[in-house]
Structures are given as C-alpha cells and as structure tokens.
Design a protein that fits this description.
With 227 residues, this protein is mainly α. The protein has one domain. It contains 10 helices and no strands. The longest helix is centred in the middle third of the chain and has 40 residues. One of its GO terms (biological process) is peroxisome fission.
Length: 227
C-alpha cells in the first residue's frame, strides 16, 4: 500500500515535466500492479472483518460496541466488493458493472471510516470530560508542574479546548495515531464520491502517511488502539 501511494504521489509531482513521460508511465504501471496485488491479498479479509465484528459485539461500552461492529461489517462488504472488482480485472467476471461495484465499495469504505472516527471522537470526549473532572477534584493539578498551561485550559474558548485536546492526544499516542490514520484514509473516498475533490498528489501523500502509521503500529503493537 505504501508503494502504491508513493507511486501515485511521485507520478503526480513529475507528470508535467516533458522529459519524464516514460518514468511517469512506469510509476503508473507499478501503482496499478500494486493495486491489483492488494485486491488479491484481500480475498480472505472479508472473513477476518466478520470475525472482528463478532468480537466487538462483546464490548461492554455501547458506543464503541456499535461503532466498531458497524465499521467491521462495512469493511467486510468493502472487501467483498473489492474482490469482485479484482475478479473483473483478471477476466474471471468480465460482465459486471465496474462503476457500480466501485461505487458500492467506496461507500462501504467511507462508512467504515466514519464509524472509526466516531469511535475516536467518543474516546476523545470521554478523556476530555475525565480531564476536566480530575482538574476540579485535584485542585487544578491534573498535570503536575504545568500550572501555567492549566490556567490557559481553564479559560473558556477555542484556545483552551485545543490546548486540552493537544495534551490528551500527546498522553495517548494510540488514540492520536488512530485518528491520524482514519483522517488520512478519508481523503480517497471523499474524492471518489465527489464530496470533497482533491488530486492524486493529496491522496498519495495521505495514503503514504496512513500506511506508515499502519506499519508503525504493526511494529509496535502497544501503539495500536485497542478494539
């Protein structure tokens, strides 16, 4: 995935240079190959997403339970649609409506990301409320040795909210990484569905950043937000 989006970004950056046509063509071919390969590897991901959805139905908190279960189910549908598109690309299902299936896949992926972001916002809201309560009960000493910053946090308004949000995300790296990844992933479906049009450069950059976060959380499982 990181290779695919890197090719997308590089081809976008150099496609206007007259002497780079062959390089752009090779990058786009490699991007296409990576995309097809990813679709093939996803054939088993539908089952994995359904198993994950079954697991999240056991969560005690109703909001994460609903958001994560809905996200996994939508992702399972997305993987299924993507598998159908892969069958079409290799000639096993030549008669399907590619545009319709691609639109369904994008909508499922978009809904899955929205559910993930809703879960992230719930976690942030809960920690914001917890921080405010602890600040009150501990005589404004929620963060030791940060009295000046707390005085700013106590002030009403956007500045205090953003400072408090920054401190919470800084103290909870898994939540920050999950939020960044979901926001970056959102650029693709927003553009495809016409909700917010960007360009391949933006989508490629966001895809690279999201992929790096995913690789980082795989290498350090303790930084992955628990589901």
């Amino acid at each position: 995935r990181a290779t695919q989006h890197t090719c997308m970004l590089l081809s976008y950056l150099i496609e206007r240079k007259a002497d780079k046509e062959k390089l752009v063509m090779r990058l786009k071919q490699l991007e296409s190959s990576m995309s097809s390969g990813r679709k093939m590897f996803r054939l088993g991901n539908t089952v994995h997403a359904l198993v994950a959805a079954r697991r999240t139905t056991q969560l005690p908190d109703v909001v994460p339970r609903f958001c994560l279960t809905a996200s996994h189910l939508a992702r399972a549908l997305y993987f299924f649609c993507d598998a159908v598109l892969w069958l079409n690309s290799v000639g096993l299902q030549p008669d399907i409506d590619k545009l319709k299936w691609r639109n369904w896949a994008t909508k499922c992926y978009y809904f899955s990301l929205l559910m993930n972001l809703a879960r992230d916002w719930y976690e942030i809201s809960w920690r914001l409320e917890q921080a405010v309560q602890e600040e009150k009960t501990k005589d404004n000493s929620f963060w030791d040795n940060h009295n000046q910053e707390l005085n700013c946090v106590k002030c009403d308004g956007l500045q205090g909210f953003l400072l408090l949000l920054f401190r919470i995300l800084k103290r909870h790296p898994p939540l920050l990484l999950d939020l960044v990844k979901n926001l970056c992933d959102l650029s693709g479906p927003l553009d495809t569905l016409g909700i917010y049009k960007t360009n391949p450069g933006v989508i490629g950059f966001c895809g690279i950043l999201s992929s790096l976060v995913g690789i980082f959380t795989l290498a350090s499982p303790h930084l992955k937000l628990k589901q």
